[in-house]
Amino acid sequence: MQLLQVTTLLLMLLLLILLCPEHSASEIECERWADLDFGVFQKEGQIILAGYFPIHSQDVPQELSFESAPGKTRCKGFNLRAFRWSQAMIYFIEEINRNPNLLPNITLGYRLYDHCWLMAQSVRSSLSVVSQSLKRNSTGACSSPPIPLIIGDPSSTLSMGIARLLNLFKVPLVSYFASCACLSDKKKFPYFFRTIPSDAYQASALARLVKHLGWTWIGAMGGDDAYGRTALEIFLAEVTRLGLCTSFQAIIPKVPTQQQLEKLVKIIKDSTARVLVAFSLEEDIQPVIEEMIRQNVTDRQWVASEAWVTSTLISSGYPNLSGTIGFAIRRADIPGLKKFLQNLQPLAEPYNPSAREFWEIQFQCSFNKDLPLGMGDLEHYNRTCTGQERIEDTDTIYNDVSQLRVTYNLHKAVYAVAHALHSLLMCQKEGGSSDKQQQCPDIYNLQPWQVIPYLKKVNFTNEFGDSVYFDEFGNAAGSYDIVNWHKGAEGGPLEIVKIGRFDSYLPTEQQLVLYEENIVWHDGSKTVPVSVCSASCLPGYRKATRKGQPLCCYDCVPCAEGSISNSIDQSECTSCPEDLWSNPQRNSCVEKQIEFLSYTEGFGMALAATAIVGVVATSSVAVIFLRHRDTPLVRANNSELSFLLLLSLTFCFLCALTFLGQPSRWACPLRRTAFGLTFALCLSCLLSKTLVVLMAFRATLPGDNTARWFRPPQQRMGVFLCSALQCAICVAWLTTAPPYPVKNNWLYRDRIILECHLGSVALFCCVLGYIGCLAVFCFILAFLARKLPGNFNEAKFITFSMLIFCAVWIAYIPAYVSSPGKFTVAVEIFAILASSFGVLLCIFAPKCYIIIFMPEKNTKKYLMSQKVR
User: Fold this and answer.
1) How many CA atoms lie less than 13 Å away from 177 in the CB half-sphere?
2) From CA 156, how far away is CA 163, in angstroms rounded?
3) Measured CA distances, 358 to 56, 340, 346, 406 (Å)
4) So which residues are the signal peptide here (predicted)?
5) Per mean pLDDT, which range of 32-46, 365-379, 458-472 is the poorest?
6) What confidence score (pLDDT) does residue 446 get?
7) Residue 859's closest CA among 633, 637, 642?
8) Is the pLDDT assigned to residue 725 strictly greater than 50?
9) Is 173 helix (H, G, I), strand (E, B) or coil?
10) Whole-angstrom Cα distance, residue 284 to residue 265?
11) pLDDT at 134 (0 to 100)
12) SS (H, E, C) 627-676
């Protein structure tokens, strides 16, 4: 049937195209085209405005025989809301006619069409508009004025079809409820304007609202029409851009079967998303809601588009939807409208068939009068209407003016058209010269295309303080109220409460304003519901996407050492700067632990105590030697060298203490030079002692004068020269490239090792090499003298001490290289202490033992009694 009707209308359209461009109304015999004017409510005026309203929701199926022309379209499902819109347009036009400052001396008329949500009927209505100049008026004269523009249609899909037809005749279409972003395409719809924001604003703003509330896992649905599909497409693109994910995407059929509804609800039930976003008309979403309630799926949070978020049909009939949130068109309290609606007279002139139908349905009565029918079929009631029934005694959508949103958009549309016509009228009055007047259109013989430039320039502030204008795409500003459905008092219908706003013309950070403390969610709580695929990753963790799943489904992986995440849901961890390290929680960078061998830690305290023990032991030996300095044992071994050796050993033990504590610019040079000088002094004394032993036995041979070169002055000179050479090396080291403190960041990632850099590695090797040469030379000489006669041959003890000394320092090298961090210093201290104790014990322990425990052996006779073996 639809195909047949559309084909018939297209043929009529072709006829109009052939006739209109070449002939005027005066040249063609006009006639009344009753088939196009069926169901029209009109009032004459100097300028006629057309209005499209879906006063009925669907058509009544007809039997088609294809043997005769199909009957007139009949509709059913009276739409109280749309009927209120049509009455509001009448009120606004009459208000303009009474306004002396707007279109003075011009009377606006109207022709209101009911298209029943049908494309065929919408096209029929448009043909009626464009053919107006070919019709006779109500008096029979062929002088019907042209209709310069149309206010409508509320449907995006129907607006697209109508606009394509009207493009051929350059008739502007000003919609009050068609929000599809596709209608912003000026190449396809050059003469389309609207006072409702484009869905491009709403879809993007809804995505931002979802992100603002922390919902990253949502279900998205759209109606099976241009409005639903386009809005859903824009919304999904914005959701993806914002890093959000959809659990499912579904299209709601226009006339769904029970099987389709069950399948859609099953998708919703199986989804883990707790938030549902729906771009749909109220009549499309209603079956889905009913099926969800039937299956007890009531734990979802709805986010509604403006097409149904203020629907009284939905909000009053389904209390389970409390907590629903969404974007609504701005509302206004229009003074005088409620009284006008209540003063409706069903049989007043001009006769309005829809008013009669509304009256009979509202009061369940019938008028026993033979009057023309509108688009709807009248039902017969047992009670007779008197016409005196009171609308104010009823409570319906028709006289509910608490949520005038679409009606307010209609107000903007009517007044925008009036201001455009007023500008056109002022062009004539203020033209001045005749040339200027010739450029201004004749408002009494106005052609549709002449209004378009004035519509584009419309810009005024209405009585409610809102600016009304059209941008370059014919769109209004993207301004919305954010509303929330609250449970009514005492179980009454849900209340629509404003909880925020969105204004696209403001700076980005000021566009979205939300009063979260006023929101009541679907479970009745004030806590924002959670809808995520994966819980948020806390600071210290990063998101690791699961293979084959959306980006919002991920695992939380701890950040690696040295990297942090200091906010939730970070995709990557951030590496800490070189001097910082991650704390145990991996959520902030802290200063790296400074590590060095300290006096305060256990290991450091043990080494320091050992060094002090060494100093005490050495001092004790010195005291013993001092008290027994006149005994043969002390005198026989050159007591002066012994005391000098004990002094150098004391310095060696004290030198170990300089390696403890924090390295500094004075501590680093001190520890290295002290080490070199003290050990050089110690080994010089040992070398001198060894030479004295060797020379003492060689001097016993007749004629040998060697002993005179190894008397005490020469011994002191030898010690001085050996030590002075080491001192010269140290001075050169300190003046050219002295040791200095450094921060070792490369050995450990999590801490800084404070250590002393050698400065000059070559000079450090010279210091060690010199000490090594002294030790080796001393060892060789002592080894050669180990079997010399004597009851107490000191050469044997020097040999053992040098053996220990060399063994310790040979083992020190690999231990030093392989020890990490502060343990390198510990190895060096251990080597110093071990070698020092080796010398102290090997050389002085046997002497002290004899002095203290075996004094009978501390005699010259005993020392000289031993023969050579």
Assistant:
1) 26
2) 10
3) 11, 15, 8, 20
4) 1-25
5) 32-46
6) 86
7) 633
8) yes
9) strand
10) 14
11) 57
12) HCCCCHHHHHCCHHHHHHHHHHHHHHHHHHHCCCCCCCCCHHHHHHHHHH
Instruction: Please report the pLDDT score of residue 206 as a whole number.
Output: 93
CB burial of residue 158 (10 Å; 0-12, 13-18, 19+):
buried
Give the tokens for residue 674. Answer: 């002290």
Q: Residue 158: which residues within 8 A CB-CB, separation 6 or more?
A: 52, 115, 117, 119, 122, 178
- The 3-state secondary structure of 280-318 reads CCHHHHHHHHHHHHHCCCCCCEEEECCCCCCCHHHHHHC
Which two structure tokens, joined as six digits, stand for 782? Answer: 């002592």
Is the N-terminal amide bond of 153 cis, ω within 30° of 0? yes
pLDDT in tens, 167-212: 999 999 999 999 888 999 999 999 999 999 998 899 999 999 999 9
Cβ atoms of 360 and 341 within 8 Å: the answer is no
CB-neighbour burial class of residue 335 (10 A; exposed 0-12, middle 13-18, buried 19+): exposed
- What's the angle, vertex CA 380, arms to CA 376 and CA 382, rounded to 5? 155
Structure tokens at 391: 């609308």
Q: Report the C-alpha gap between 732 and 816 in whole angstroms.
A: 25
Q: If you search the block for the tokens 């009109």, which residue do you land on? A: 42
List, as one string, the DSSP characters of 329-360.
Answer: E-----TTHHHHHHT--TTPSSP-HHHHHHHH
pLDDT in tens, 525-534: 899 999 999 8
Instruction: Please state the separation of Cα 851 from the chain's center in Å.
Output: 85
- Look up tokens 């110690």; give the residue: 682
Distance in angstroms (rounded) separating the CA atoms of residues 56 and 37: 17
pLDDT grade, residue 626 (50/70/90)?
confident
All domains of the chain, ordered by start, with CATH? Answer: 40-59+75-132+144-196+335-412 (3.40.50.2300), 199-330+476-518 (3.40.50.2300), 541-589 (no CATH), 602-853 (1.20.1070.10)
Asked if 55 and 118 count as a contact pair (C-beta separation under 8 A), the reply is no
Joined together, the tokens standing for residue 156 give 């995006």
Residue 869 has pLDDT above 50, yes or no: no
